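Sample pair:
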Amino acid sequence: MLFDTHTHLDSKDFDGDRKEVIERAYANGVTRMVNVGFDRETIPTTMELVEAYDFIYAAVGWHPVEAITMQPGDLEWIESLCKHEKVVAIGEIGLDYHWDKSPKEVQHRVLREQIGLARSINMPIVIHNREAHEDIVRILREEKASEVGGIMHSFSGSWETAKMCLDMGFHLSFGGPITFKNAKQPKEVLQQVPMDRLLLETDSPYLTPHPYRGKRNESGHVRLVAEAAAELKGVSLEEISEITTKNALTLFGIR
């Protein structure tokens, strides 16, 4: 049993064979997935997926790159969707300093608003962090995100940053990069993360693991991530699968 805690199966990349991709993942032992809706277009398509498949759950939120597109009423929309029994987190939210689409001050405001919502309804958050480690940690602390915890999605920071996130009650999730030969830092961090705070993901169709790097990623490839994590942790594939699935079920409140 594997749990892909972060995927984008509603992406247009899957328009030609979405059903087959989902069936292939399930056949490969991926018995649960969280699909992430992150803007006005992908939140509705994410909700369509969770209605169509018993084993797909949803995270809904506003991505930092798209923060500038968030309109009055959108936060209330997210809150209303969080009442759905299969919406298990608010995300992906956070900061992204790689792209210039949304000014930093807008990203900060949208992130703070969504953390506030998560605290008000007691729901975990999924954090996207690209080139913004210091500000992410600061805002999470200032907004008391430790009250709800959540996931540092596709964690790419140092062990020092990881420790600060762990101290706030967050889980760290790892994907395809831990299979890359030159990805020294995420491998070293993963080795030090406590087993009860470790999660696996694909972020498909992005961040495809070796040996398929450069091609479209899909949720079934979380097995390759699990194999790499098991080797780094010095445990069996079965053990890493069982522990990370249990961690995800507990965090998301899934029975």
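The chain has nine helices and eight strands.
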